[in-house]
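Record 1 of the preview.
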Amino acid sequence: MTEQTEAPAAVFTDLGLEPDILKALDSLGYEEPTPIQVEAIPVLLGGRDVLGQAATGTGKTAAFALPLVQRIDPDKRGVQALVMAPTRELAVQVAEATHRYGAGRGVSVLAVYGGQAIDRQLRELRRGVSVVVGTPGRILDHIRRRSLDLSSVGYVVLDEADEMLDMGFIEDIETILTETPEGRQTALFSATFPPRIAQLADRHMTDPVRVTVRAPKLETPLVRQAAYVVPRPYKLEALARVLDLEAPTSAILFCRTRNEVDELNEALSVRGYRPEALHGGLNQAQRDRVMKRFREGTADLLIATDVAARGLDVEHVSHVINYDIPQTPEVYVHRIGRTGRAGREGTAITLVQPREQGLLRGIERVVGRPIELARVPTVADLRARRVELLRSAIRETIEEDEFDGYREIVATLAEDYDPLEIAAAAAKLAADATRGEEPENEVEIPQWENRPQRPHDDTRGPRGRRDSFDGPPRGRRPRADMTRLFIGVGRRRGIRPGDIVGAIVGEAKIPAEGIGSIEIADQFTLVEVAEEHADHVIRTMSRAAIKGRPVSIRRSHD
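->
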């Protein structure tokens, strides 16, 4: 494998692209190539395999799609290029981009993925397409149906290969690659290169050129980052106040699990917001309807899980809100990168439980800048904000001078009342119409931003009595879809929440989203797991050890 060093700055005309493709790029508003495009495009146009390490948002779609389009012969029958992507959203996004790049050359592109009616895909494949972009599962389905013939493929792309590995697609990918000609050109792009990805490259690529582009540092003055430290019981109330104070034009709210997405969607709907939920439990038609409403502005809030939000292409998001703080800085960076795009300002807000402030400090180290620790708005703050917004709206209305039809009403009332009183009454009516009635009693939310932190003890609860992953009181029943397990080891053995999560995920191989609250007492631990995984966790953990010690585990009966 050869190594290619970083190329100097360039323009698209330097990369070997043909005039019709350069014209398409100009019409799309592309001004200069990104580093991954500068390095990868000339190599791919030269016919070499490429092993690219680049994160989402670096421009890698154009890096592989532009050479692909240039090498396609529109007059030739059969599928000439195949692109595999981990999710249906990313597959659609790549297909749309490829279509835009190749429209002037007559390049036909088809996206194939599960959740869409297969009849349409079969019809388009029979008609003939040059490029197929899809998820491994649906591509393999078409191969088995003999509706997709890959014998003429000369160009294969594996996009976000590490994501496909994490989602269990590696065997499907291996099978698909065996259906393509040995002499094909292959491009593999991945943010990371775990051993199985490296082995895949060794088996199916020929002396690839290694192209590595580091993700740009997140620090950008266009994204304001703030965090609110809020105990879990007050999170919903705090979120509602933050939304009222910020008044986002469009916002994506992230939760860890689909159940939390549904619960938050229902809670905000009751409070008068216009949210939409997006998670893996929706079929493709439902997902399409949700995204259509969000893009059109019918819904102003999109509540989503990370997996469901992968590959979303939304032109402008004013706010990204982490209702649950991400468990890794990388996820945080990926989430908030959805706002502050294309020169626009954006805001990233994170709700942090007191015990999670260690995670927040870790994120700050990766981001390279402090995150503003804000005070949770009070009801008085919200009243002041609404008055400010009303004042601005009145000013704009006066400056627009489009209220002639109302002058007669005011003139009539002015015969009996002072004009100032008339204006004040009209302002009150407008304010009352904006957001229901004011709460009679303000819910007091504890303010944590200035409280001292216990050194080296980010998981202790506010009273310091027990370690807690999710902060529930003892005796609280788990959610209906969760089961509480008793593990016979606790704080006196040095057990921390991370030890429990790591052991269960590592031994039982269940996703971290399947783990709920964790309470660690002196002699034992209570952990909630998804009911569907409970028996499997008990079986595997009964044969395992935590911090080198065998443990007893059973369903809790409290």
